[in-house]
Amino acid sequence: MDSQKSKPAGKKYAQLVETAKALFLKHGIKRVTVEEICEKASVSKVTFYKYFSNKMQLARIIVDHLNNEGFSKFDEINRLDLPYPEKVDLMTQWRAALFSQMATEFIEDVLVFEDIHQEVQKRYLRNITDAQAKGEIQSDLSPELILLVTEKLNEIVKDGSWKAIFTDFNEFQRQIRKMYYYGLLENK
After folding, report:
1. First-residue to last-residue Cα distance in the chain
2. I want to staple 128 with a disulfide (CB 3.0 to 4.6 A). Which of 59, 87, 102, 143 is the partner?
3. What torsion, rounded to 10 degrees, do the Cα atoms 37, 41, 46, 52 define?
4. What DSSP character marks residue 163?
């Protein structure tokens, strides 16, 4: 009897998480209500509060899961036996595909999780220093400067100013990577 009770409870929990994830990705966290999540998941509010103290706790679980997936993919690509620029291309393509599934509102809502931003920065810096140790990136460049420039490039993506020059986001990304990793001067 107890095992039968645990199966529906697990199923309802999963329904809530999957439904909330779909709604959050489409509309952002702030715009979605607990009532909407429960209605779409066909689960009562009592059941919702059995698992989660509030919407932000549920959002945090989803964001942590997405973050862990991202770090796993990042690490998987980083372990490939490829030249560094090819790894960066793969990481960027994967990231662009992931972000294309997310509403701008969701991405902005996730920015409130400062610890995630700090972890991303820490991993990015470690990636840069590892690449420098392997001779893939110039060792005399400051990893912190590289991070700062990367964050400023991300602001260009967020504010949409790139659209005045490019109609295709992938072409914009390709040219940014080329300039960023190969510089402005012709290789002779």
Report:
1. 75
2. 143
3. -60
4. G
Q: Which two tokens stand for residue 89?
A: 């291309």
Query: Which residues are within 8 A (CB) of 64 and not within 5 positions of it... i.e. 6 or more apart?
Result: 116
C-alpha 19/C-alpha 105 separation (Å) is 17
Angle at 93 between CA 87 and CA 95, to 5 degrees: 100
pLDDT, tens only, 139-171: 999 999 989 998 888 788 778 888 899 888 778
DSSP state of 141: S
Tokens standing for residue 2: 């107890």
Distance from C-alpha of 188 to C-alpha of 155, rounded to nearest angstrom: 33
**CATH numbers and ranges of domains, the chain:** 2-182 (1.10.357.10)
Count Cα atoms within 13 angstroms, Cβ side, for 24: 24
Whose tokens are 């107890």? That residue is 2
Q: Which two tokens stand for residue 136?
A: 């893939």
DSSP 30: T
- Locate the DSSP E strands across the chain: none
User: What's at 167, amino acid-wise?
Assistant: T
Tokens coding 133:
């140790």
Q: Quote the crossing angle between the two packed helices 114-133 and 55-79, to the nearest 10°.
A: 10
The span from the CA of 88 to the CA of 173, in Å, is 11
